[in-house]
Specification:
Strand content: under 5%
Shape: elongated
Number of helices: 9
Structural class: mainly alpha
InterPro entries: DesT_TetR_C, DNA-bd_HTH_TetR-type_CS, Homeodomain-like_sf, HTH-type_TetR-like_transc_reg, HTH_TetR, Tet_transcr_reg_TetR-rel_C_sf
Radius of gyration: 23 Å
Organism: Kibdelosporangium persicum
Helix content: over 70%
Pfam families: TetR_C_46 (PF21943), TetR_N (PF00440)
Domain HTH tetR-type: 18-78
Number of strands: 0
Protein name: Transcriptional regulator
Oligomer: single chain
Length: 211
C-alpha cells in the first residue's frame, strides 16, 4: 500500500504586537506568582512563551519592566473591583460585606495576581505595592465612613482609623484564605461582618482605656 506523502508543514501563525505583549504578560504573571521576582528570569519567560529573549526585551526592556506592568495591572484590577462595590448610600454593614466579598472574589478568581501582590508586599508591611493599594482602598472607605460618622454623632476625624482597621482585617483574612480555602467564601464574609458589625454596632462615643 502506497504511503501518503506528508504535506508541507503548517505555517506558523504570527501574533500581532498586542497579542504577543498580552501573551508575555500572562506567562510572566504565572511565573512571578510561582517563583517570585527574584526566582523568575527573562530566559524562562521567553522559553515558556516560545520566543527569544530579545522579544521580551523589545516589549518590556527587562524583567523589572514586565514585572512593573504585571503588578500595576493587578493593582488596578483589585482597586477597581473593590471601589466599584462601594458607595456612600450603603449601610456600613453592607459596605463591609461588599468590600470583603470583592477582595475574596479577587483571591478566588485571580489567585496568581494576589500571590504576586502579597509576596511583593505582605499585608503587615508598611511599604510596597500592596500596602500602597490597601492605603488607597482605606482612603475610599474612610470617606464613606466619615459621612456615616458625622450623621450619627461620632467624630468624623476617627473615620481613617476605623477604615485602616477594617481594611487591614479583611486583607489579612484574605491572605490567610488564599491557601486554606476553608470555610467557603460566603461563610468567611459572613464571619468577618459578624465580628466587625457586632463590635461596631455599640460603639462608645468617647472610649477610654480600661486598666
Amino acid at each position: 500500500m502506497r504511503r501518503k506523502e506528508a504535506g508541507p508543514p503548517a505555517a506558523r501563525v504570527r501574533m500581532t504586537g498586542t497579542q504577543r505583549r498580552r501573551q508575555l504578560l500572562d506567562v510572566a504573571r504565572a511565573l512571578f506568582a510561582e517563583k517570585g521576582f527574584d526566582g523568575a528570569s527573562i530566559e524562562e519567560i521567553a522559553h515558556r512563551a516560545g520566543v527569544s529573549k530579545p522579544v521580551v526585551y523589545e516589549h518590556f526592556g527587562g524583567k523589572e519592566g514586565i514585572y512593573a506592568v504585571v503588578v500595576d495591572r493587578e493593582m488596578d484590577q483589585l482597586l477597581s473591583a473593590i471601589t466599584a462595590s462601594l458607595s456612600e448610600e450603603m449601610h456600613p454593614r453592607t459596605l463591609l460585606e461588599h468590600a470583603a466579598t470583592a477582595l475574596l472574589d479577587y483571591v478566588d478568581l485571580s489567585t496568581d495576581g494576589f500571590r504576586i501582590l502579597v509576596r511583593d508586599s505582605p499585608v503587615a508591611s508598611a511599604t510596597g505595592t500592596f500596602s500602597s493599594l490597601l492605603s488607597d482602598i482605606a482612603s475610599h472607605v474612610e470617606h464613606i465612613l466619615g459621612v456615616h460618622f458625622s450623621s450619627r454623632g461620632y467624630d468624623a476625624k476617627l473615620a481613617g482609623l476605623y477604615a485602616q482597621a477594617l481594611v487591614g482585617m479583611v486583607a489579612l483574612t484574605g491572605q490567610w484564605w488564599l491557601d486554606v480555602r476553608k470555610p467557603r467564601k460566603a461563610d468567611v464574609v459572613a464571619h468577618l461582618v459578624n465580628l466587625a458589625w457586632n463590635g461596631l454596632s455599640h460603639l462608645e462615643h468617647k472610649p477610654k482605656p480600661r486598666r
